């Protein structure tokens, strides 16, 4: 029987797997690369325009939501390609819905960005 590991060791291992997943995502997915670039750009803009604590909270929340949902979308795409590599309308539907979720949170993030920065720029 395998030796039982402590709760703490298991948690640390899980964090390691999650970090590896985040790195894989950034390394392999073009859309995540763009989102990470935009996240860095708005972070610089946040410091430049000295946005308030509340604005930082909304900005960080919006950026994390987009990147997080994009990660889930990538995982769904990979599962689809693994379980059913051939063309199937149902796979198309699943992938479209997952992509739609990314689009919805992205629209929200763009609106948050406009509310924060438009009054500061113009
Ligand atoms: N096996 C399939 N069966 C039916 N339609 C599919 C299939 N694979 C992809 N599609 C259609 O093509 C679209 C794009 O799918 P794809 O897996 O290429 O994702 P993508 O948007 O190019 O993802 P990314 O660029 O993030 O890797 C899907 O939203 C879906 O409409």
Automatic annotation (TrEMBL):
GO terms for biological process: phospholipid biosynthetic process. Gene3D superfamilies: 1.10.287.3610. The chain crosses the membrane at residues 30-50, 97-118. GO terms for cellular component: plasma membrane. The active site is at residue 70. A divalent metal cation binds at residues 29, 77. Keywords: ATP-binding, Cell membrane, Kinase, Lipid biosynthesis, Lipid metabolism, Magnesium, Membrane, Metal-binding, Nucleotide-binding, Phospholipid biosynthesis, Phospholipid metabolism, Transferase, Transmembrane, Transmembrane helix. ATP binds at residues 11, 29, 77, 95-96. Pfam families: DAGK_prokar. It is found in: Cell membrane. Mn(2+), Zn(2+), Cd(2+) and Co(2+) support activity to lesser extents. Its cofactor is Mg(2+). PANTHER family: DIACYLGLYCEROL KINASE (PTHR34299:SF1). Belongs to the bacterial diacylglycerol kinase family. This is Diacylglycerol kinase family protein. It comes from Zobellia amurskyensis. The lineage of its organism: Bacteria, Pseudomonadati, Bacteroidota, Flavobacteriia, Flavobacteriales.
